[in-house]
Design brief:
Layout (H helix, E strand, L loop, with lengths): L5 H9 L3 H9 L4 E4 L9 H9 L7 E8 L2 E8 L3 E2 L1 H7 L5 E3 L2 H8 L17 E4 L8 E7 L2 E5 L1 H8 L2 E3 L2 E2 L1
Parallel strand pairs: 3-6, 6-9
Antiparallel strand pairs: 1-8, 2-3, 2-5, 4-10, 7-8
């Protein structure tokens, strides 16, 4: 069994995830939404929207892509898809492809379906779909399946160093 770091022990004791710990440390206003995750549901994001009773255009998924050999995070509405060409362009790259899931998990410290743009093991360049800015609050993964965090899109952008660009396709 792997030994837990002091930080991991503190998070476990506080009941938080690296994402919620980062939000608390930054003094950002947020709300945590927990729901029972159904492993048979075909879409983590759509399941979250349904379970919380929130419009899918306010629930965003965190996707990790490889842009010219570098990992980049795209945050887009769950009802749409990530435009890889637009993502590459937003970070000054040429080509993008979805990252290997194992590499994404290892780099972010989160499991697929629970990858949060916040509190990642290695902070990756992040692009937030510009549709997020049209909402007072949006929901993103809080760091595990069945747990979402609701916050202002400006706070998310500030904490992740995200740029905003039209990277989602409806």
């Amino acid at each position: 069994m792997a030994k837990k770091s002091k930080k991991q022990q503190q998070q476990q004791q506080s009941g938080g995830t690296p994402a919620t710990v980062a939000l608390s440390a930054a003094g950002v206003e947020f709300t945590v939404h927990a729901y029972d995750h159904d492993p048979s549901h075909p879409s983590y994001g759509e399941e979250a929207a349904e379970a919380m009773g929130v419009s899918p255009d306010r629930v965003f998924k965190t996707l990790v892509a490889d842009v010219d050999g570098n990992l980049v995070v795209g945050v887009v509405p769950v009802a749409g898809t990530l435009d890889l060409k637009a993502l590459a362009s937003a970070v000054g790259g040429k080509r993008a492809a979805m990252a290997d899931p194992t590499l994404a998990e290892r780099t972010t410290g989160y499991v697929r379906g629970g990858i949060s743009p916040l509190g990642q093991r290695k902070r990756l360049p992040t692009v937030l779909d510009d549709s997020a800015l049209g909402h007072a609050t949006i929901c993103v993964s809080a760091g595990r399946r069945g747990l979402e965090v609701e916050l202002a899109p400006g706070d998310l952008a500030e904490l992740t160093g995200a740029v905003s660009a039209p990277i989602g396709r409806g």
